[in-house]
């Protein structure tokens, strides 16, 4: 006979069973209709940034990525290969079917002529080979590796260099830096092809700035992302200037008028961005090679403007033991001069960077006649140093004697104890106008002074040559920015300039993806940690499944018990 108490227990068990079944059904419905992914790794290596997800979700056509990292590689390159594959798998999910990729091994082409032609075509696209040395069966072998990819979209294509990082780091560290940069490099290429921005950059002229051929590579590279216009500041009305999103001031040698400074100041007050590549000192190798010179400060009439914004460019030059090389005649064989590459300590190699997204994992930057920068009080302005000289630097106050004999002199290490010196700064905040409590100067068409600015950003570097590309004297063609033609080495000058401008203009924050940090671990430790994430995921799901099983079992056990009465 079934009592009222047993009926009550049976009712509760039935409700528990139904609730468990309903919970399992609800979980399945949610899983089927709502997309979610869990990244349980400690460094979130599988997590794609929200800005990248949004960009991929807005693709209107298919993106095709050909990756040339296919083959049997050592552990470090396998890790990079796997990272690229995993990142593209994530991209494909968020792109909603508008992305596919192929891994290609260029060395599989059996015909030698076709293989060499293919190698050449990759090099012309910007994917340069790396000679990889490894030990196989106790023997040293060499293998040509192309650590790059080509991204295609709507008839356009862009090459992606996947082997990034600082050459001064160990091979393992550099490969890890490359892994950290995979998402940004691929996402940046997709954005360049599919979402070319409508923002406008103005290259300021009229004060002896670098000529068109001297910035050809920078302007051409910027043109892949933005619209670039050139114009003399004195002839630009304020209304035209305000249509720009960013201005570049690159190595002026003549003074700015008060009207010109007013235009720059009011442009910044109204939210415009600016990058200054300014030489405080007048120094050039043509005069040095002709018998020597004294480097003296330029009179650019920009000191008060930059001082108001929070910086002072000092009238000095930095010598650095970590420096570039120049060809120097060291003797003659008959009537033929014999040249050697010697250190020119006025050309510091900048290889100390902050952890900011602009400079993170950046390779060395080549500078010429660079000066120190001091910060001064500027209310509400955040000042971030970006680039430093090495710790073995020396500061030479103006006037600085410059002669090639300096390159021949024996170095006294005691003179190079100034420590690392910042030579590039990022300034962010609401700037105060230089013309606060002052009248607008004569010659401007908008005399209404905005004394307090809106939130904006500017960057200042104390070397105008950071963005100057050399020119081939025979062909008249511009070399790549950062290419040292005497030593056949390419430095990261272009990457520094592009990263800076991307950061200033990137309202969506894609440049911040460069901050991604992945801990460097041995390959077997990585495998163990990834296996642990599967157990962690199982630990999340298992209680729900066990609850359902327990509810079902309890119901049937109770049911059998009731049926015996």
Automatic annotation (TrEMBL):
Tree of life domain: Bacteria
Transmembrane segments: 14-36, 534-557
Residue intervals of the DUF7088 domain: 42-152
Keyword field contains Transmembrane helix: yes
Domain ABC-type uncharacterised transport system: 201-499
Keyword Membrane carried by entry: yes
InterPro entries attached to this UniProt entry: ABC_transp_unknown, DUF7088, Motility-assoc_ABC-rel_GldG
Entry keyword set: Membrane, Transmembrane, Transmembrane helix
Name of the protein described by the UniProt record: Gliding motility-associated ABC transporter substrate-binding protein GldG
């Amino acid at each position: 006979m079934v009592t009222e108490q047993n009926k009550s227990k049976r009712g509760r068990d039935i409700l528990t069973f139904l609730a468990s079944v309903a919970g399992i059904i609800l979980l399945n419905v949610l899983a089927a209709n709502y997309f979610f992914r869990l990244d349980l790794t400690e460094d979130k290596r599988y997590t794609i940034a929200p800005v990248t997800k949004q960009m991929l979700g807005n693709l209107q056509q298919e993106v095709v990525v050909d990756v040339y990292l296919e083959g049997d590689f050592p552990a470090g390159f396998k890790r990079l290969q796997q990272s690229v594959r995993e990142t593209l798998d994530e991209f494909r999910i968020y792109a909603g079917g508008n992305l596919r990729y192929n891994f290609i091994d260029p060395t599989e082409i059996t015909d030698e002529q076709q293989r060499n032609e293919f190698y050449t075509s990759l090099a012309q696209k910007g994917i340069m080979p790396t000679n990889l040395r490894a030990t196989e069966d106790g023997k040293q072998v060499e293998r040509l590796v192309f650590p790059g990819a080509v991204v295609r979209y709507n008839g356009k294509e862009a090459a992606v260099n996947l082997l990034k990082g600082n050459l001064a780091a160990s091979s393992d560290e550099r490969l890890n830096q490359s892994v950290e940069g995979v998402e940004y490099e691929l996402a940046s290429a997709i954005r360049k092809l599919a979402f070319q921005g409508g923002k406008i950059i103005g290259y300021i002229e009229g004060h002896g700035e670098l000529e068109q051929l001297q910035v050809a590579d920078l302007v051409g590279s910027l043109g892949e992302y933005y619209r670039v216009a050139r114009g003399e500041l004195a002839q630009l009305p304020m209304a035209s200037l305000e249509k720009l999103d960013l201005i570049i001031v690159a190595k002026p040698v003549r003074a700015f008028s008060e009207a010109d400074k007013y235009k720059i100041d009011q442009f910044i007050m109204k939210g415009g961005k600016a990058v200054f590549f300014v030489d405080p000192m007048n120094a050039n190798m043509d005069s040095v090679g002709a018998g020597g010179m004294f480097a003296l400060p330029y009179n650019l009439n920009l000191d008060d403007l930059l001082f108001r914004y929070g910086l002072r460019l000092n009238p000095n030059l930095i010598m650095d033991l970590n420096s570039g090389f120049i060809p120097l005649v060291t003797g003659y064989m008959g009537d033929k001069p014999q040249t050697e590459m010697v250190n020119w300590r006025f050309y510091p190699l900048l290889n100390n960077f902050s952890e900011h997204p602009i400079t993170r994992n950046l390779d060395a930057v080549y500078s010429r006649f660079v000066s120190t920068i001091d910060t001064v009080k500027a209310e509400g302005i955040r000042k971030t140093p970006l680039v430093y000289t090495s710790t073995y630097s020396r500061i030479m106050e103006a006037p600085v004697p410059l002669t090639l004999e300096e390159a021949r002199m024996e170095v006294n290490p005691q003179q190079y104890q100034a420590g690392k010196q910042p030579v590039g700064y990022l300034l962010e905040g609401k700037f105060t106008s230089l013309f606060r409590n002052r009248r607008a100067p004569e010659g401007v068409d908008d005399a209404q002074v905005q004394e307090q600015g809106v939130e904006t950003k500017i960057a200042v570097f104390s070397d105008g040559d950071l963005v100057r590309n050399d020119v081939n004297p025979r062909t008249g063609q511009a070399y790549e920015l950062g290419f040292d033609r005497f030593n056949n080495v390419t430095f990261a000058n272009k990457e520094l300039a592009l990263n800076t401008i991307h950061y200033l203009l990137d309202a969506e924050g894609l440049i911040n993806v460069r901050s991604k940090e992945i801990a460097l671990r041995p390959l077997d430790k990585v495998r163990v940690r990834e296996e642990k994430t599967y157990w962690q995921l199982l630990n999340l799901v298992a209680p729900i499944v066990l609850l359902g099983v327990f509810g079902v079992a309890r119901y049937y056990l109770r049911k059998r018990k009731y049926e015996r009465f």
